[in-house]
Amino acid sequence: MNLSIVEYPDKRLREKSLRVEKFDLKLHEILDAMYPLMMQTNGIGLAAIQVGIAQEILILNIPDDDGEQPKENLIEIINPVLSNTRGESTYQEGCLSVPSFYEDINRFEFLTLNYQDRDGNTQYLEADGLLSIAIQHEYDHLLGILFIDKLTSSRRRKFEKEYKKMLKENKSPK
Ligand code: QAP
Ligand code: CO
User: Fold this and answer.
1) Residues 23-79: tens digit of each pLDDT
2) Which residues does the annotation mark as catalytic?
3) Residue ranges of E strands in the chain
């Protein structure tokens, strides 16, 4: 499967993802194609809608303290349900679908997550720190929400203007 990253302002990023019903080979092929794409593009998290697939699938690979991202750190999350959110934290986020733009975003500090793995088994995790932030960021993708939606309206307008200008300049022939 040859996947590529869907970039803002592509409307597909606004779609709501649907629950996965079948834990079949097709699902495994999607997951197996998402992982190398995320690693090649220097990502730590990727939702299926970012490759144009509107299903509740996301993968995370949070680096260790030494910055390494061994495959053991990979978490595959299907049909997530977020709960017990508490606390507050701010982190400078980015997104593979909004390349080269980073901004401080407020999120919950802690959360718990019920989800399914690639075989349909029920899983549960508790998260804080970067894992918690990454889960919230990717979970938003399933709802068609981007991190830039969380900027104040004035900062958002500034972003729209600058980002569209940047795209235009990058795309124009020399
Ligand atoms: C979401 O984001 C996230 O602009 C994952 O040029 C962000 O992997 C989770 C990336 C912050 C937690 C904290 C962005 C790569 C990767 C870029 C990413 C870029 C190259 C973003
Ligand atoms: Co993102």
Assistant:
1) 999 999 999 999 999 999 999 999 999 999 999 999 999 999 999 999 999 999 999
2) 138
3) 45-47, 57-61, 74-86, 89-93, 103-107, 110-116, 122-127
Q: State CA 136 to chain mean position distance.
A: 8
Q: For residue 133, give the H/E element and its range.
A: helix 129-142
Measured from the alpha carbon of residue 140, the closest ligand is: 2
Residue 47 and residue 25: Cα distance in Å, rounded?
18
Q: What is the pLDDT of residue 173?
A: 63
CA of 94 to the centre of ligand 1 (A): 4
Report the alpha-carbon distance of residue 144 to residue 146 in Å, rounded: 7
Residue 133: CB within 6 Å of ligand 1? yes
Is 44 near ligand 1, meaning CB less than 6 Å away?
yes
